[in-house]
Structures are given as structure tokens and as C-alpha cells.
Amino acid sequence: MHPGLVIGTAVVYLIILFGIGYFGSKLARNGKKIIQNGYTYALSLAVYCTAWTFFGSIGRASTNGVDFLTIYIGPTLMAPLWFVVLRKIILISKSQKITSLADFVSARYGKSTLLGAVATTFLLIGIVPYIALQLKAVTSSFSLALSSSSIPDAVLNEAHFYQDSAFYITIVLAIFTIVFGASHLESSRQNQGLVTAIAFESLIKLFAFLVAGLFVVYGIYHGFGDLFSQAYEHERLQAFFDADMTSIQPMDWFFHLLLSMFAIFLLPRQFHMAVVENSDINHLKKSMWLFPLYLFIINIFVLPIALGGYLYFDGVMVDADTYILSLPLAEGNSVIALIVLVGGLSAATGMVIVSTVALSIMVNNHLLIPLLLRSRRLSGSPMNVSSSLIGFRRLISSAILLIAYSYFRSVGEAQSLISIGLTSFVAVAQFAPLLLGGIYWKGGTKSGAIAGLVVGFLIWAYCLPLATLAGNGIISGGFLQHGLFGIEWLKPDAILGLDGMDEISHATFWSLLANILTYTMVSLNSQPSPLEASQAEMFVDIDRYTQTNELPVLQSKARISDLELLLNRFMNAKRANRFIQRLAKQHNINLKTTTEASPALIDDVEKALASILGASSAKLLISSVAQQKKQTLQEVLSVLDETQKLMRYSKALEVKSAELEEAGKQLQQANSRLKAMDKVKDEFLTTITHELRTPITSIKSLAHILFENKDLEKAKQQEFLQIVVKESDRIAKLINQVLDMEKMASGMVEWDMQEIDLEQLGLDALQRLHSVIKKRGISLESDLSCNHPIVEGDYDRLLQVVINILSNAIKFCDPDEGKIIIKLDSDEQQVSLSIEDNGIGIAEESLPFIFDKFTQFTNYKKGHSYGSGLGLSISRQIMLHHKGDIIVKSRVGKGSQFFIHLPKKTRELQIQSS
Amino acid sequence: MKKILIVDDEPNITIAIRFLLEQEGYQTEVVHDGLQAIEKAKVFRPDLIVLDVMMPHMSGFEVAEQLRTDPAYRDTHILFLTAKGADQDKSTGYGLGGDTYLVKPFDNDHLKATIHEILES
Predict the structure, then answer these.
(1) Which DSSP helix (H) or strand (E) runs through B4?
(2) Nearest chain B residue to A698, by CA
(3) Interface predicted TM-score (ipTM) of this complex, two decimals
(4) How open is the CA angle A709-A711-A713, to the nearest 5 degrees?
């Protein structure tokens, strides 16, 4: 491709990246939080996917099959655990103003300067080759595109550095890191510009990979089916589909998974994005599923591209790592090639930028500052160093990138993408014991942490980088064949004769084993300092301390003016003064009358310094102005114990008050239930009294009339007396029904359960109402013949139900041409009796309520009825007791139809029960 | 002869009231719900209405409310006669323009005396 096009595209992309970063930091400065969300956070975590993913996975897949997936499966398996482990790490880091991984472990183990320095050195050694690897990937992809030949690197080695594209890329990345990575003083503060740019890069590389994948599968081949069937017919690739092809052993799978599980939060760039740049702990929830999803999507096309490339370049010497770019180039599709190029660039630059930022913070805070403090340059001089601090960090960033560049120029060429990557993984895994131990085990000590780390790291260095260098002939390689000092069982790929694993798994096993054992044994045999003990307490039980935020265990004394002077050197005087004023207000200290700072205030100043310099340097600085009261470990432990008791007590109080609140709530609910029941009872009483008053009114009045008018004509007397009798019956009936209802409601009814023939029962009911039906001239249609209408029930009660329904039908059927149809029916399960009239019917809106108490008086047309309104309600209760049901269908003006259903008593059941 | 309209959905009660009032020499008409009461009042022009409250279609309160908006019934007395005995119901009745409010079951003599008092005053 034309060099101008390739370079132009890269330049345009990098300008856009700058723009996005600038835009992001500007938004954050204006206090807008639109980009601070779970999606951005998850995308920024995808800085995990580097050039290794973009180029290396395909190379690995084309030789080893699916084993490239291990480093993505590990984080996916780990994701559910994030909420436990990562949440805790983030909480601790926020409360302690942690600036990096080295700061985290140093802070945990008594803010140890030594541990911080050791950790930083090891990470630097472990990660710089990994950065170099990214430079290599970008460079080879560019030279491939520029030469358009399938053999990259040919010209590269003879070129001077100024002709080398990697050099220019390194420069650009250094500028980016300087602008966005080290822009402000507090390294623990979130840097939205960086996060936005990284999230953007994650989108770009995903997009590019998917485009390339689709191009290979659908542009070069005819879909997945075509590609896979071609591959299946290919002689060598046939083996690909056999299980043997994935030559990786179960042990190796295990260790690779383990490594990637650690890498996802221990790699400096991951720790930086996941912990230091986390703006809201709740973003974790979204990233728990979003990040694994990202990994899944970006891996979909790895295998297809690997197979496609293998088939396409069958026999031609093409590096499998470059298939994703070689394929569109060979096809002459420069648009796709440019997209791939940008994708690869974004994958590599994202990693390089974040790693460099993270490493430069560590080098600055744990190597440079302690050194300066020790040489009294910083602690002695009164000048403000805040601007030079940023300057230092920028210098360090550039230095790290330059070291990476020269590593790439000198040794990086010889190694493959994946082997350097995995080597770095093993290096950072050495932090797992002291970090996880540090947040879950109070017994871990500084000596244990340093010893474990050093031992693990030495074994790592011996088994991996040194062995690799020796293997490449860069250093003398005698120990490869004969073991260290000529001792056979110290061979770097088979310590104690252990072989059968690949070198990565082998190194992981031995280094981690030795690391854990050393860490544990030394910790158990060493005394923690008071500060270590209190930090251990704070880290392990962070959930208990998040509210209080301070642990006034270590008593120190300092003058406020000294503290302000100290701050003056790391922030401008105005800000330092404002900060002190704010703290004084917070701690209720009157600055005019008080000169001594309280321990809590000293602690806050130390934290502010820690957010700039890291915990260990901050501690050193504070100790230069503050007098630490001499405290024995015993004293500290007893204070800790007191604090814990207090906290337990307040926790218990909290629980109690929550219980009380809950009880109060329950009381309130019970009260409102009672109130509702009371209201129901009131309504019931009102209705009952109304229903009683009505007949009593006519009885009383008419009886009085009869009494006063002795000479009343006979016919009138008869009429009035009849009404009195009828209304008396009405009262009696009502009272009986109310008692009946109450009896049923309280379960006091005695049920005389027996086998009943419903046909018989129906006939009985008709018999009893025969005379009324006849008197009113109602035509009756009855069909009671039925197959085995046997049920189990209380005969009198069921008869009561049927008579009640029939009486209603008689009452409400057409007054002139009344008609009632009664029918009996049965199926396998139940016997049904239906009673239909041709009366006025019931309005649809009233239907749901007609089985409620006293419904009749508001919904049935009155003036005709003398029922209590309890009949249907009682009927339903009787039916429910029989595990049956009563249902009504009705149309206004056409009539109503009532059904009663009862479970059939089957013959088999009869036999069983008898 | 003073005219009295008796409104109650219980026929047996209206039988008793009608007998009592006719014995006293009043001219009476009986209806069994609120709608009929409105219709009947237009033609019968009663001096007093004995009005039940809980009735189908239209309650006694609604009847009173409607009549009181019509100036033609300004001089028509309303006597609520109901089983609803709560204080709240009573004040509703008076509020809607009832002259008096009696609770069922009533005393014959008391009813007669009350009506006499209202109509002669």
C-alpha cells in the first residue's frame, strides 16, 4: 500500500484519539458524568485485549487449536468473583487513596518503602518486555502493510532507528502518556480523559476485528460452512478437528487459566483501570457480564481467520500472527487492511499507554521519591516541588517507553507475541499470594510478603526470561542442559525432575509454590510492627471501617503549621491552606487557639500526601514532622481490640434498631389489618341492624295500630296480622342465617358427610317447593336423569343450597310466564346441577359480588324480595366446604343460570374407602 | 286537606304509615322508589314527603337534593324516615333540607305528632 495512505491513516487515528481524550477530560472537568458509567468502565477493562489478542491469538490458534482461549476463559470464570475480590480491593483503595498495585501492597504491609520499591522493580522487569512486544506488533503490522510483501522485518533490522516506524510510534505514545496520563498531581484521582480514550480504543479494536472476521468468512470464503468444510478436507488441518490437535495438557490448561485469572486484576494496566480509575463501585456490577461478553465477541473470529489464513497461504511462508492483515492485503482490499491496521494500533497503544502510566506512577512514588527523601533533597528544602513531581512522572514515562523500545530493538525480535505475554503473566502472578493474603489474612507480615515476592520472582526469572535469553544465545546457556551450578535437578525446565508441563506452567507451579510457602512461613515466624497490624486490620475488615474511615490507633503529635508547610511543597500554598482549613472544620479544631494537630488530622494529611506520593513516601514525610508516640504491639492490639468491640457494639445496635423498625412495621401492618377487619365488622353490623329494623318497623307500627283500633274491620285486621307474622318470620330467618354464617366462619358446623345421590336430592328439593311453583303458575322443565350422580356431602346442607337457588329462581323469574329449567349432568370428575330462570337477570357489574354478604339489597331489584342477602353467601360457603363450587351466568332481561359443581365420588374410591 | 307523599321501598311499612296518616285525615300517595317519588311529586304536589333513604335506583338523599334545587318545592316539607340511624346520616339529611329526621322503627304517635306540628306551624 502507499506509505502516505498508511501513515496518514495512523496519524488521523491518533489525532482522533487525542481529541477523544481531550473531550473526556474536559467533560469530567465540567463535572459532567455522561461518560462515567458501567459501560465505559467495562470497555476500559478491555485494555486486557492487546496486540496479543489481535494478532497473536490467530497465530496460536493456527498451530495449537483452541488453547488460545485459556487466557479469556480465566477472566470470564473470575468475573463472578469480582464482586467479592475486586470490590474489596476497590473499597480499600478508595479509603487509603491507593495509587497503584505496588502502593497497595506497600500500604497493606505497614506502608513499607522497601516492599514498594521491590514490587516496583519486579513489575518493571516483568512488564517492560510486554510493552516492547506491543511495539513489535505494531511495527511489524505497519511494515507488512507498507511493503505489501508477506515477509516483514526484512528491511527493519538494517534500518537506523530514525527510519524505524516503531521509534515514531514510541514518541507519539510518550506524548499521549505525558498529556493524559500524568496530567495531575494526585495519582489516585480518576483521570477521565484516559478512561474515555481507552474505552474508545476498545470499541475500535473490537470493530476492526469483527470487520476482518466477516471479510475472511464471507468475503474470501462463502460463509462458515464453506470455510470449515474446506478446512476439514485439508490434509493437515484435518488433525485440527481431532482432539489430539489441542496438544495442551490438562495441567497446562489449569495453570494458564490460573494465570489469566490473576492477570485480570494484577497486571499493572488492569489494576490501574479496574481500581485506580474506578469512579463508582457500582460499575463493577455491569462489567461483571459486559466484560466477559466483550471477550467472547472478540474471540468469535479467531479460529475462522486462523483456518482461512492457513488454507489461503497453504505452503507459502507467512507468519500466522499476521493472517488478519495478510489476508486483506493479499486480496488487495486496502480498506479492510487499513481498518485492521488501525484496530491493531488501538489494541497495542491502549496497553502501552495504560501500562506506562501505571508503571511511571510506581517508579515515581516508590523508587524516585523515597530516594530523594532519603537524600534530603525533598524533606529538607522548603521549595515547592509539585510542578517538578509532574515533570518527574513525565520523564519516567518517556524513559520507560524508551527502555521498552530499546528492548524491542535488541532482544524482542526473537520472541513470539504470546511467549512474552505469558511470561509477564507469571511475573504478576507473584503478587497474588501477598495481595490476596493481605486482604483476607491478618497474619501476613511485611517480612513474609517481601520474602515470598523475592523468592517467587527469582524462580520466575531463572525459569523464564533467563532461560529464554540463554535459549536465544544472548547469555551463556550452559545451565539449560546441565542445570544451575551443574546440578541436574536445577534445570530451568524441569526443577526436581518435574517435567511434562510446558515451561510456563512449570514456572508458574514452582514460583507460586515457593512464593506461597515462603510468604506463609516467614509471616508466621515474624512480628508485625504496630503500623502493619493496624493496616492489616483495616484491609481485612474494610467493610467494617468504610463508614468510620479512620482508625485512631497510632498516636502521633505534630504542629499544624508544620503540616501545612509540608503540604505547601506538594500543592500550591493557597490550596494547602484551604485544605487545612477544611480539615480543621471537619475535626472541630479552632486554628486560632490550637497549634497541635489531632491524630485524625495528621492521618488525613498523610492520606492527602499518599494520593500524590503513595503510602510509603507519605508516611516518611509525615514522620519527619510528627512525633510518633512509642507504642508496643500489645498496646496497638489492645486499642484495635477496643475499636473492634465498639464496632461490634454499634453493629449490634444497628441490628437491634433494624429489628425494632421491622417490628414497628409489622405492628403497623397488623394494625391496619385490624382496622380493615373492624371496618368490615362495622359494615356488617350496620347492614344487620338495617335489615332487622325494617321488619320490626312494620311489626311495631301495625301491632300498635291493631291495639289502638279494636273496632277495625275484620279484613284489615287479617291483612295486618298476616304482615306481622311474615315480618316476624323474616326476622327469625335472618337471625338464623347470621348465626349459621358465624358458625361456618368459625368452623363450628358439624357436617354429616354421607354418600348422596344428587338426583334424589334434586327431586326432594322440587317436592318441597312444588306447591309454590304451582301456585305462581311457573312452568318447570326438569331433567335429572344422570349417570352415577353420586357425591359425598351433608344432605341437609346441600338441600339448603339447592332450595335457596330454586327459591331465588321462583322469586325472580318472569312474573307472568315464569319458567325454570333444572338439569343434572356429570362427567369423569364432577356432578353438576344447573338451575335456570327467565327473570330480570343480574347486571354484569354486579355478578362478581352476588355471593358476598347482603349483596342483594343493593343490586337486586327490590320490592319483590324478602331474602336476607345471606342465602347465596351461605350457599357458597357450603359448596366450598364440599370442595365444590357455585357459579352464576346471567344476562339482564333474559334470566340467570346457577351451577353447582361437586366432585364425583368414583366407584373405585368407594371400594378403597370401604 | 293536606297532602302527604309516602316514599319507601318496603310495602309493609307504607301500608302502616298510609293507614295512620289517612286516619288523621291527610290525603296520601305511596311510591316505592326515588324516581317514582320525583315523578309523583310533580303531579301530586304534596305538602310533606315521608322519605326513606335506602331505596333502589335513587336514594332518599338524592330525591331531597333534587327537589330542593327546584323553587316549586320551596314550601314542601321533607321528613326523613329511615333505618340509617348514625349521627352522620342525620346531619346529611338536615343538610339536604330535611325538616326532620326519624329513625325506624318509629313510634306511631310520635310520627303523627311530628307531622302535625310541621304542617300546622
Answers:
(1) strand B3-7
(2) B13
(3) 0.94
(4) 105
